[in-house]
Amino acid sequence: MEHIDFRDQISRNKRNSIFLMVFVILVIVLLGWTISNAFDPSYFFLIMIVSIIFSIFYVWINFYNSDKIAIKSVGAKLADRIKYRDYYRLVESLTVASSLPMPKLYIMESHSINAFASGRDPNHAVLCVTTGSLEKLERRELEGVLAHEMGHVANYDIRFITLVAVMVGMIAIISQIFLRSLWFRGGGDNKNSGIFIVIGILLAILAPIVVSLVQLSISRKREFTADATAVKFTRNPTGLIGALEKIRKENTPNEKVSKAIAPLFFSNPFKRLSSTHPPIEKRIEALKSF
Question: Cα(154)–Cα(99) distance, rounded to whole angstroms?
């Protein structure tokens, strides 16, 4: 198998994520242009203002409280430094390797092997692992999982994913307002407004589905990037590979996890094929190429 440098993997996945974001922006522009031709331009301007204000307000609240929301939603508790001494030591060594501030450490009661990181930036980061991770993983494997989550923090993935969520939310809101407005308003003065209304209806139905798939794709690419970053921090992919192998063999979905925060986890908590995470087999294959 051809050897791939982890730095190349990180750079490539970041570029691909940016390209996918540009695609989402183009969908917003196309949807807006279609609606503006179907209706009065000032009417479209009102739609944009309402959707942008609502989206930004909603995401701003969630963004600045993302760590608290994530921790509270899974019922995690602050990890005791004495009881979980090894947990603290591993993270402290990773902060040295990554030059990141020490995050707050939490424990989540669950038999499954999993973990997640949250917070708007490295200075407000939290890291949470399941009790199953501490019980089932060897030291090097646990280090790999923690390094992956620290990779999300280092790459500002929470901020990036939130930005994508804003744009996806805007498309959903614009589409809903447009579809509902058809019941109360006829076409504009434009003689081609009927055609644009039909096109607008199709876009309003399909655009939210398409951009949601794009959002999943972006999330999956960020997982590959975090894996590569973990190798950068630990200089050894074997621990992370071992953890993924154990996760692949176990079949203990965690139904306590909300679908809203499922993308934050190290592996898909629901064990479904259509998810925000790439297949474990592909992650292992990519790690073996380093």
Answer: 9
Given CA atoms 149, 150, 155, 159 in this order, what sign does their dihedral have? positive
Please give the structure tokens belonging to residue 195. Answer: 């055609």
E runs forming strands in 37-178? 77-78, 104-108, 115-118, 126-130
CA distance 136 to 142: 9
Q: pLDDT tens for residues 228-284?
A: 999 999 999 999 999 999 998 886 655 567 666 777 888 877 655 456 788 899 999
Tokens of 235: 């200089």
In contact, 145 and 266? CB cutoff 8 Å: yes
> What ranges in the chain are assigned the alpha helix state H?
6-38, 41-64, 66-73, 85-98, 131-136, 139-154, 157-181, 193-234, 238-249, 280-288
CB atoms within 10 A of CB 198: 12
Q: Is residue 149 among the annotated active site residues?
A: yes
Tokens of 274: 């259509």
**Tally of CB atoms within 10 A around 141:** 22
Entry pTM: 0.77
Contacts of 217 (CB under 8 A, 6+ apart): 20
CB 38 within 8 A of CB 187: yes
List pLDDT tens digits, range 87-140: 999 999 999 999 999 999 999 999 999 999 998 888 999 999 999 999 999 999
The residue assigned the tokens 């009102």 is 46
Q: Are 52 and 60 in contact (CB under 8 A)?
A: no
Q: How far apart are CA 167 and CA 25, in angstroms?
A: 7
Catalytic residue among 92, 138, 141, 149: 149
